[in-house]
Each structure stands twice: as structure tokens, then as C-alpha cells.
Structures
1.
Amino acid sequence: MKNAVFTLTLTAVLLAGGGSKAAVAQALPALDLQVQCTQTKREDGDGERLIFADQGRIKLDGDNVQELQWESSLFRADHGFECSIDKDDQPQVEVTEKGWRITLKDAVAARTQRGYDFDRSYQCSIRLEREGEMVHIRPFCPALCGSRMNFTELKVNVTNGKCEYVD
């Protein structure tokens, strides 16, 4: 786990059990997340040096996206890869029992708008889940990642602001 510059304001109550979608939305009124994380590690433990860098701002009010911007980068010695998502990609948010699920209204159009001209999965789903003191960001969004496979999965500790990159 590496230190990170981190700010999180979470005004939400996560339900442990079921309930209607409307009840879940009322119980999760807002998420205001701003995060900057970096981590350097060696590929396969002793190989090439990799630098992971993520910065973003996610502001949700129930099932309304007020602000969304996330850049997830992976740098190698001679090149880098980047994934990004923002409000112009027409995100939609669904409130779940554990947190939120962000998808795109039209992932194909968002990918085409970025100028990516080769096939990759056209799916995009980013889950934000509270796990005790951690907010777990679980992306599956290759549609917005050019030649990189996906955004980096990470957990952020809401108490001390440390980031943990998930392998």
C-alpha cells in the first residue's frame, strides 16, 4: 500500500441487506470523491519498472452524475498507456446495495469519439463499493482505454487516504 494525496467526502449509508431500488437510492444520497494515487512496482516482481497513476473526481447524487473525471495511467520506461472517462462520455449511474455502478449510455460512440479505430470490448462498467474503511473502485471499461486493457482497479482507505492497487 502506498501513500496518496487523497480527499474523500462520503455522505452515504450503505445497506447490508436488500430493499427497493428507491430505498437504496434514498439511503445513498451522495458521493463526493477526489483521489490521486501513484505506485511504482516491478513487472512480475523483478522485471521492468511500472508506474501506476490515477487521478479523478467523482461526484454522485443518488443516481445523478454531477461530476465525473478519471484518468488511469500505466507508464513504462519508453511508453505509457492511458484510460480516461468524463461527463462528456454520457455516464449513467445506478445505485446498488454496495454503492454505485457507472455505465455509459453509448460506449461505442464514446470509443469512436476518442478516435480508437480498432476493436476492443465496447463495454464500460465501473463499480464503487464501500468495504469498511475502504472504497473499492472496480472498473471493467476497456471501451475507453485505447490500447490498454482497462482502468486500474484500486482501493482507497477513507481514514488515512492510502491507495492500494489491486493486482
2.
Amino acid sequence: MSNNKKEPKNEIKIKEFDEEKSAEELGEVIRKNDLENYTKGKVGFFSYSDASPGIGGGSGHFLWFDSFHNLCQFLADYFVVLAPGRLDLDHKKVYENVAEIIKELAAGDISTPKAIQEINKAGKHFSQIEWIGELDDLIQGDGEFPTKVREYFFESREDEGSVKEKIGKEHQKAFLEFLTEYGI
């Protein structure tokens, strides 16, 4: 008797933890999901390494995905190797804890801000997620992170633009280029 039960579209599949294999795959997956491949409608996140600055902590990056589900699946699969944590920590346990939070996020059982808070707590000494959303939010949003990003953009250009100013079409290409280096 076969089981024809359809898998829910937003269900996250948790794969067997293999840190070495995930780390090997990560570079190629990141290249496919960087801002240079951005098209309208993609969703992204910004994360940074939660290590001491002397060993690269604090540097961050955006990654972009075709769907919220794909973003969640990526985080479930690769969060632990985005910025590998201290060796004295149980990486498998962190992987499992974050994956469970991501499953709740993808299913809509937890809000994005709450998920970010819980992921960051579980991922202390690994990566920290500062933002999840769409580019339009960075261009037009009034939230703390979009406002901060636009402020840095205008400062880097020495423009007279206001922090609350939206990124106009005339600045969008420059803004996308700026985002590729934001956090580095």
C-alpha cells in the first residue's frame, strides 16, 4: 500500500547533519544566491559572524532566494556552517535547534522577528541574523534595519539624502552594488 500523502509546500526537510559536506556545498550555494543574481520578488536575509572581530566576527552578507520557503530551507541546511562556531560547542545540537525554529517559521507558526530572536539565541557564537525580507523593504521600509542600511548608503555616497528617504529608481543600481559590500 503506497502513501500518496502530499507533502505540504512550506514544509522544511531536515537532512542528516553532515557539517563537512555542508561546508563544502556552501560556497556554490552562496554563489547562486548572492545579490548579483537578484531579481524583483526574491526574499533575502542579512547575517553576520558572531565571533570576535580578530577572527572575522562581525562581518556579514546578504543572500537572496526565489521564495521564502527556499530561504528557510537554506537556513535549515547551512546556518551552522555560514560562520562555524567555537569547537567546544555541540554543532549538531545547534543545527537541530535552528532547524526546528526554521520549520516553525516556514509553517507560519512563529513570526519572523520572533524566529530571528530564537535563531540568534540558539546560534550564539555562530551566525546572527539581523534581517529577513524583500529588497523593497530595504528600499522603502521604515524598520530599523532598512533605515540603517539606507543611512550608510547615503553616507557612503556623501549624498544629501535623508535616512527616511526611499531609494529612488535613479539610485537603485548604486544601492544594489552597495549591498554587495554592506557588512564586509
3.
Amino acid sequence: MQTEDRGLRPKKIVSEYGDLLAMINEQHDPEPLKILPNALPESLLPFPQTTIRHALSIYLLHQDYIEERDIIEDAYTFLDNFIPDDEYKLFTSLQVSMEAKGRLDCSEWIGNSDISNTMILLRMRTRRMKKRRKHSAQELKSLRRITGIPDKAFPQDDDETEEALELELNL
């Protein structure tokens, strides 16, 4: 019984994901969310997140050059920015509404259950992304240890995390 698709090789998966990242870097559509820093719709991905993560892991296990490893590790971590399309659309409409009115005051949300529910969903997604980023950092540290490479310092309080934390506190 063949359980593996022979057409899906790590090189092909990583290459297509790299092409996507290059395209995102060159274009502004779709634009990453501001209310959920760098969030993009999951439908952009050429393969499921777990498949891409697995292929990147295989690449890391066979990569000796630090510069190449850093690029692959950044791509691995960036994968956490892709969220389900329905959430992306919902958060995009919330962001447009917030930009149109300026920063909304929390008292405006109390009577509006749609906005309140969206804000709760946004808070939950922010927490999941933060938790997933920490998990990714641990996975990358494990992969470095397996290959005998010293741990890379993974900042826990980078600008994106601070922005997400500030947003979470304001919700």
C-alpha cells in the first residue's frame, strides 16, 4: 500500500511556498491585516500548513548553511500568519470599519453583538497565533539540536508580539 504521494517532494513544496512568499513581498494584494499583524488568508497557501511545515522541517534537517537555515526558519515561522479565510474576511471588514470611524471606543461595542463576537474571535485568534509562534520557535530549536547547530535566539517580545499584546489588552 502506497501512503505517500510521490509527486509531492519537499523541494516542490518549499519552492511553491517560497514563490508565494516572494509574491506577497512584491505585491500589496491581499494586504496583511493590521488588527492582527501580518495575518493573511489560508487559501493563498499552495499546500496545507502541515504539509509545508513538514517539508520545511525536512529541508532544515539537511541544510548546513546558516544563511539558508535562517531563511527557511523565517519561512517556517511566517507560516503561522495564515488564518482561515472566513476569519480573514471578518477581520478585514472589522478593520475597514475601525479605520473609517477611527479607533472605536469599547463603549460602542456593548450594544452591538456582531462586533462584540468578532472582537472575541479576534482575541481568541490572537492568542492562538501567539501560542503557535511559541510552539514554532520550540520546534525550530528542536530541529537545530537534532542537527547539532546551536540554538538561535528566538525573540519572544518582537514588535509583532508587542503589537498583538497591545491589541489584546485593548480588546
